[in-house]
């Protein structure tokens, strides 16, 4: 009997299909969740174009670009890790997953640096907002949405890092093989979600204002 087969499944393919279906359903709910936030951002940007453009110009384009590169690189390395386990290369697969998690931590550190800089500039609504002028109120709306969207995304990155470290440890212990690596696939799908959300956040928040 397959050691990885749960009692309520008939065979490994059925178990994998159920797990993948559950993960895709979760991803669908997350897409709806972030979709509503991004839709709210688009509507408010249309309603307050000057304030949102000014707010976007206050974001750190360099750090945002580095964060984007870090996340995209981490997604590629995660795919390498999945391929390595399919080739029965557990050690290199474990290393790839650990590197992916490390890049996730790097992303969080970089984004934390942004938050610290924005605090010193007085760009955090209700905490320390020191901006004045005709567009100060609409720019405050921009930063409210900015912190909600990027904060929730960072939370997802943090959850992903913890998940990857657990998967890496299980990989190191030999729990996965070319015949069973469903948890690793699911972790890869989750990390792809983190990447894709940021691909929409980066141009909308960082690039739009700096290109104006």
From TrEMBL:
It comes from the Bacteria. It is found in: Cell membrane; Membrane. The keyword Transmembrane applies. The keyword Membrane applies. It holds the Pfam family COX3. Its main location: membrane. Belongs to the cytochrome c oxidase subunit 3 family. This is Cytochrome c oxidase subunit 3.
């Amino acid at each position: 009997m397959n050691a990885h087969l749960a009692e309520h499944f008939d065979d490994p393919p059925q178990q994998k299909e159920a797990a993948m279906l559950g993960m895709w359903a979760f991803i669908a709910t997350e897409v709806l969740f972030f979709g509503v936030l991004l839709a709210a951002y688009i509507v408010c940007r249309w309603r307050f174009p000057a304030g949102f453009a000014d707010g976007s110009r206050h974001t750190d384009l360099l750090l945002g670009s580095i964060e984007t590169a870090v996340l995209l690189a981490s997604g590629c390395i995660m795919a390498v890790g999945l391929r390595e386990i399919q080739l029965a290369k557990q050690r290199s697969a474990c290393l790839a997953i650990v590197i992916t998690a490390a890049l996730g931590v790097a992303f969080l550190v970089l984004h934390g640096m942004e938050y610290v800089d924005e605090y010193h500039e007085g760009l955090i609504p209700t905490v320390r907002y020191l901006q004045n002028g005709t567009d100060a109120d609409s720019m405050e709306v921009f930063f409210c949405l900015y912190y909600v969207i990027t904060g929730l995304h960072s939370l997802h990155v943090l959850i992903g890092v913890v998940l990857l470290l657990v998967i890496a440890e299980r990989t190191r212990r030999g729990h996965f093989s070319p015949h069973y690596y469903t948890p690793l696939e699911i972790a890869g799908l989750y990390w792809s979600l983190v990447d894709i959300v940021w691909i929409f956040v980066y141009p909308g928040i960082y690039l739009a204002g700096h290109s104006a």
